[in-house]
Design brief:
Elements: E1 12-20, H1 26-34, E2 43-47, E3 56-60, E4 66-70, H2 74-85, E5 90-97, E6 103-109, H3 118-130, E7 135-139, H4 150-153, H5 161-174, E8 177-181, H6 189-193, E9 206-209, E10 212-215, H7 225-239, E11 246-248, H8 263-269, H9 271-288, E12 292-296, H10 298-302, H11 305-309, E13 315-319, H12 327-336, E14 340-344, H13 357-373, E15 378-383, H14 393-408, H15 416-424, H16 427-436, H17 441-444, H18 464-469, H19 482-497, H20 505-528, H21 538-556, H22 562-579
Parallel strand pairs: 2-4, 6-7, 6-15, 7-8, 8-11, 11-12, 12-13, 13-14
Antiparallel strand pairs: 1-5, 3-4, 3-5, 9-10
Helix pairs in contact: 1-2, 3-5, 7-9, 8-9, 13-14, 15-16, 19-20, 20-21, 21-22
Length: 581
Amino acid sequence: MTNPAIWPTPRSVTWTHASCTVPPSAASDLETMLAGGDAPDWIDAARDETLPAGGYTLQIDEHTPVVIRHNGALRHAAATLIMLLRRTALPCGRVEDYPAIRNRGVMLDISRDRIPTMREFRDILGTLALLKINHLQLYVEHTLAYAGHEAIWSGWSALTLAELDRIQGWCDDFGIELAGNQNCFGHLSEVLRTPGYEHLAETHGPYDFYGLTRDGPFSLCPTDPRSLELATDFIQQQAAVLRSPLFNIGCDETADIGAGRSADAVANKGKAAVYGNYVAQIARAALDLGKRPMFWADIALSEPAVLDALPKDMIAIAWGYEPDSPFDQWCETLTQTGFETWLSPGTSAWRSIAGRTSERRANLRAAAQAAVAHDGAGLLITDWGDLGHRQTWPITLMGIAEGAHAAWNPDAPFDAKALGTALWSSPELGSWLADLGDADLPLRETCGFPDATGNRGRLLNAGAVFTDMHPARPDWGTPGTAEEWKAVHAKLETLATRRPRVRNTLLNTECAHTVDVMCAGCARATNRRGATTEADTLADRFDTLAGEHRRLWLARSRTGGLDRSAAWYTRLADQRREEAP
């Protein structure tokens, strides 16, 4: 028989031509199991510690009970049964399964600019459990309602600590570890723009951010004791709610250090020493609260002397979002210096609108394979919200589901139709989303920022349509010819006409909106390169997209951040009106 779609792909499956008779309550029984409930009478479930950690076996015969043996993985077995039961009948056969990586995590950005509603959080957790994800982080800069810091989070629909406690309870139900997460060094622009907190910034002036000139504030000043006091207060308040022993203190991309108030210290001691001393102090504050600190390892990997200053019981998270990210090399560097290492690939949904299918798939697989080769401690799949968090949920979920597959069974071939069947009962939607994410691939391969000789390579960390709408650098130019952009536009229009429909109306509308944004971006790009196609209607199209973006946002997310997000489309409309003859 044709193998039913199970996602992630199991290690071993054997099917017969028979079906199992289950009671009418089977679907609700399994949902209860997934949320931590006991197995019903028609399932014989027992622990078997001879199985691999997180592993399970399923034996399904024509008559119940269904037999489950598991090693801490009853929910995983329930998730598999849920996917199987989405057929007309439960197929008979045997499944033997276990994960390649112990900690299979997802990090959702709730600071730029999208915070899910509580109902959406609950739905997301159920979906993560179905995908056998067992670790979650919510990336926080300024959007957690810490007591005594109301000026920072007021107006952002911030997640309250009571709401975080409810999310913790749901995570417990679904067997998902909810680790703490608060950036304690860089990426704190909103905090440091807040009246009463400006004095903590490293600088409010210009600095070099990896080749881009930016104006502060961005990072806390590492030589100001009050910076440590603020970060410690944040950690303490969040840690009091969460039960996980892990806490991610962030500390990535602090490119402005030495550009302002810490300049003398950096000149005397070196940037690595100044950075390492401050991060070590934050780490000790977390350790004093009984939390094992995790940190983004990008600065340490670029300045290896940092590693000597940090407590060795920290967990280093090495992130990279391209197929050629040197995960193996990073693992070797970090593990040889005594750090437990997790690897962090991404959904590639941010800065792309439709995702980057080819790069995402290769990035996730490379990270998972490297994690397995270096002990398999953890994989953290990130979904960032740069420039308004405008990717819709199906684009994010596609990346998360691919990452879950890579973390569970990285050697199994990827099958977009199986993913679509498992998530949405639509193999066509899985294939369509994969194709949509590669619609601008020909341009992504040739329109990166030019090197010193003027040659353009592959575009990094962004889609071509998104980059043309919002170039990261003012001197980006206009890569790609009008004909190349027309070809991508034609591909997108074809995808729009063959978009699959599913029963979920919101999902249908989100997919339609995604391809509409991509088409409008292509029309604008073609117009910018001398063609007149739809030039007179572009401003109205972007105004319409801003309105649809608002409507869809409120279906899943809170109002905080919406105005800032929608403004990206409004600015495109205004730009077109200014450019129009």
